[in-house]
Amino acid sequence: MASSASSPSSSLQANPTANQMHVSGLGLEVNPYATRYSCLKGSCKVTSMAAPAPQETNLKPTAHEQHTLAAPLAYHSAFADSDADVVLASSEGTLYRVHAYTLRTTSGLFKTLLSLPPPPGGHTVSPIPTGEPDTVLEPLLCLMCGLHTPPWPSLAALSAVLTLAQNWVSPGPIAYLRPLLKSPKFLTTDPLRVYALAAHFGFRAEAQIASTHTLTLDLLHPQHADALGAMPAVAALALVRLHRTRRDALRALLDSPERFLAGNGQPFYCSACAITPLENRTWRALKHRILRELDACAGGDALGARAMWGEGGMGVWEEARACWKAVCVKPGCAAANYDRAATVKQIQACVEGLPKVVEVDWLEESGNLD
Scanning 172, 272, 279, 302, which has its CA 20 to 30 A from the CA of 354? Predict the structure, then answer.
């Protein structure tokens, strides 16, 4: 006779999903009851659900699975503390043991991720894949744990760690890394990319400092096309506007009769004989050469006191030499048309008064990430 009671196996059913939580930045899907983690792209989805019913199976692990289970785990030497209760895995397979308290207090992402209630019986520690290489994950974890970090080999390495710190909502490491953008090592070698990074992360002061260092560059040169194209349009436009504003402002100053009376006065007579009006062809040629130089180098390096007589400096230009040699055409006068020392000093004063930093009203200052 068939029994009316159901068999034990028929009463085992999986419970419905308890709750779901979405956390942006890490790219993980977490089941706290099964402690299963899987990488996702774009955002971090945290799903909490009841543990599924156990199922009996007679399958035995294959030889490959037995070898995998027996293989030793490759822990990073600085992150191998057996007391640490969270294990992170790099994309290269290196494991990092970190205390949950450290992660919760230094990362807004992990503060949310690790706040899920534990399942009945507690968690099973499984590596959490981060999808990041060791060159990015290790420095950030060292900063979060207060460990020594080696010198940064490149601006690209610094950028990658900054990006991960932003994704993990880690204000401490960001505050440590931010001043490094002002390092002469980066500002002198690649100021355009430093400016792009500062604009991306909302670092106003660093963006302005980097913009000043870009004045040595010709932004229209093809070699800078990729860097300009990669930054937000508003950031690129602000930088181009700075370079163009300097050129337009200097042109207005060079054309000013108040600053250069002998060259721009209409008419201006020889200061010696007071009879012959000056012919200012050489002065106009010099002004055009100065503006061309500012197009190539908005900083006006060739006009500075140190570079004046060096290679490429204004002191050795043919236009400048012709200007200083120009004299009054009246027979018996031959007085110099322009006071060379006073003119050079006035030109340098005009260049020094030009704007040197980009306007950053459009840039939202990075605030507290807590």
Answer: 279
Amino acid letter, 76? H
pLDDT at 288: 96
| 222 in any annotated domain | no
Question: Which residues of the chain register pLDDT less than 50?
Answer: 1-52, 54, 61-71, 368-370
User: Where is the domain boundary, 101, 116, 150?
Assistant: 150
CA 79/CA 257 separation, integer angstroms: 70
Report residue 327: phi and psi, to 5°. -135, 165
Phi and psi dihedrals of 110, rounded to 5? -70, -25
**Is omega for the bond preceding 267 within 30 degrees of 0, making it cis?**
yes
What is the H or E stretch that residue 334 is in? none
| Sign of the torsion angle spanned by Cα atoms 157, 163, 164, 170 | positive
Write down the pLDDT at residue 121: 60
Nearest residue to 126 via CA among 38, 35, 34 = 35
